[in-house]
């Protein structure tokens, strides 16, 4: 029986793409799928045949100042909630309520805070989705905090240390949500926890849309939570199967290149990343492709370096020798599937935690953004390019990722909700 399924999403292309993959599979199974998100993604969503519904706030995707604020590793998360989510909570609620009044099932992303509220108000079955292990805040597999990268060294302290620290962190966010708690009272919905943390999880099903290789299930994850494996979609145009001719020609001219990229968001606040990377490439004598968006390099590019604005990672990464990137959920998933060693330069949010997880897997090195320069890049890349163990381990993990089928696993888990 066909169901009308609403999928919400707020964030970058790395947040959007896995949910497009999920929506396409659900629609292929005979359901009607509407994706509720910013108006900026309308064209991409409608191009693959999914329904689109605009949600406020309408944050400008072309304002680099927004990205500079959000990628402040210390203040970024607070700025996101205080400036771009909570002030618009009533508008988001009103938009989503109109859509959900005619829906059967909600699949909600963590930053759409009115989703769980409306599911309870309208008595809708619903599932939450998360794209990174960081979201589940386990005391047994603790996250690396962007505000304190040194927290990686606190892992061995164990749950006795992390539980009270996590309680303290949750308590500090309570004051951010005054507008939400007012809305909750107006809607006549009983309190169900902090909307940023435990209140974002469903009592029915929580889908971790990442590989258990990156984050294994933990006993303090919310009930009914599963790691499905990654979900992949990154076509620039529907049915895209080949790289642009210019990249094909470059790849055919020599050895595999090192790919440098900052995803779809951090690239808007790249700073000296690409200029320093160019110095490193020249010193190492390797070929490189810079997926650099609108960033213009002031230094002339040698024939061994190609600049491209944006390209499908699933098509490009398998041709790389190594990948230097920001550690976003989508970029990380694509790099792991390609089976390539990495250097990660985290900019904010979950990227510090993703970087630490890949380093523990033996396939990556980490350079803090404030420390990223040509000498640091050379030091990190040298073992990646010259030590076979990194490439061998990355390839082995890539094969395991390729054997997973996250979208099928997620839809199988969703079937009881849909029936």
Draw up the topology in text.
Elements: E1 4-8, H1 13-28, E2 32-37, H2 42-47, E3 51-54, H3 64-70, H4 76-85, H5 89-100, E4 105-108, H6 114-122, E5 126-130, H7 159-173, H8 178-186, E6 205-208, E7 225-227, H9 245-252, E8 258-261, H10 273-284, E9 288-291, E10 305-308, H11 313-316, E11 322-325, H12 329-338, E12 342-344, H13 351-360, E13 364-366, H14 374-386, H15 388-403, H16 406-418
Parallel strand pairs: 1-2, 1-4, 2-3, 4-5, 5-6, 6-7, 8-9, 8-11, 9-10, 11-12, 12-13
Please tell me about this protein's structure:
The chain is α/β, with parallel strands linked by helices. The protein is 41% helix and 13% strand. It has helices at residues 13-28, 42-47, 64-70, 76-85, 89-100, 114-122, 159-173, 178-186, 245-252, 273-284, 313-316, 329-338, 351-360, 374-386, 388-403, 406-418; strands at residues 4-8, 32-37, 51-54, 105-108, 126-130, 205-208, 225-227, 258-261, 288-291, 305-308, 322-325, 342-344, 364-366. The strands form two sheets. It has a seven-stranded parallel β-sheet, with helices on both faces. A six-stranded parallel β-sheet has the order 10-9-8-11-12-13, with helices on both faces. Helix 10 (273-284) crosses helix 14 (374-386). It is globular and about 65 Å long. The chain starts with a strand and ends with a helix. The relative contact order is 0.13. The mean pLDDT is 93.
